[in-house]
């Protein structure tokens, strides 16, 4: 016997066969799990209303499983039997209950094979669920499955079916002898028992030879087995040490990370390609690794692989300039809407993902993915992920805002609000008129975001739109416009605010709003406005209410102004003989001091930040 400490290593063919069996078993399990998720979601369709959150959870889980399964194994081809669905000759679904079995429903309607192609879109998956629900619902008459599939004409679903005549022939069977009493030309076949069949069979005499059909014969030569395994005993036994060594070698081989080895091989091939066609094929293979990392939620690996692809392409482009364009073509394919659109369930299922990695990955893809990223804004649940998406759009679309402007016509207010925020971050002159559309949106949150975005653009047009927002029907929009305009800190902004204060309808507004306008005036005015404000402290006539409110508002503006001339007026009036005047100035100074120390109330400028209110929690279907 050989040395027990030495274990024979499996050959390359044995390794490949074993790995192939493991991969097949894993694929069969993936498909079986996916069909179970499909059945669960179909049951949820029957139990819950379309807008039920539980149903949405089942739908999201099924979409994620479908996307992952198709990417892992490619097209899913299911062969249909009476009570089973087979994948690679393995049963991945079995249900003998005729009323509930999907396999029985497909089989009885003539479907013998159904294929789900890679690239199956979420709306197609929902359409398939509708077909299955309608086909298996007794209250809807159980329409023919083939007809329902034909009416939908799915792009990524194919099926093989047989005609009604063939279904009848399959059901009629071939073991029924003809009725002897039936007239020539056929009749209804009646089954007979095996005993009757034996009685009717002709009896062969000892010397009589039965002539069989040419395709029903057996060889006359008697074939005997040359190897009788039962007669051979155990040839050898492994010692305990050999068994442990063998198990350890098997474990090491099974845990060996093949993915990294394959990746290194593909990278080496990509670096050595000389022909454009071959380079494109290798880069496309590299693309699959990147997409797989995204499907698994591994943003760090996806970033690293995408960066490596760009590095290799840049190096090869030094001698082959056309390789750069081919690489960009492959990277654009990663940002296609059909792929990134299915990334939302993964982000929703993994709130722990680093948003910085998400932003960096989308920036590496470039502005061609902007449309798909805008779609994700309406599907992602977590605020930090939406912020990462907005950050990526602000960087990628810095020189091309047309795709963002086109999204201002979206029917979802939260998508428009995030797009407006991104436009404000980019702050391009020339988009003011596009933001004016958002300034007249029916949702007040969109209008407030449009005001903030206009505040980032320094142009006469944006200033005019901000002043027009003083007439908005909502007080919070007017307040936001005042504070935003005050950030300009010039006399033109102060003059606009003073004009709003002197407007006839200003006295009818809420007291808190009036005080905000005075505060904004103090933040952007100059000493030229000190005499006007000083006059308001000692005289009445602006408001219809008591003089205390007027004095306090004017003193508040001077306190926010804070120039030596303004402080001189306040110190002088602190010595006034009128208690109301002293109390108004003291209250104004205390308010400004508290605000400087961070003790003041939250101002409108600190209102909900972009992307905090948006998301499925507020209306995403």
UniProtKB/TrEMBL annotation:
* A Pfam short name: HEAT_2
Protein name per UniProt: HEAT repeat domain-containing protein
The protein's organism comes out as Eiseniibacteriota bacterium
The record's listing under InterPro entries reads: ARM-like, ARM-type_fold, PBS_lyase_HEAT
What PANTHER family does the record point to?
DEOXYHYPUSINE HYDROXYLASE, PBS LYASE HEAT-LIKE PROTEIN
Output the Gene3D superfamilies linked to this UniProt entry. Answer: Leucine-rich Repeat Variant (1.25.10.10)
Specify the taxonomic lineage. Bacteria, Candidatus Eiseniibacteriota
- SUPFAM superfamilies on file: ARM repeat
Q: Which GO terms describe its molecular function?
A: oxidoreductase activity
**Which stretches does the entry tag as region Disordered?**
593-621
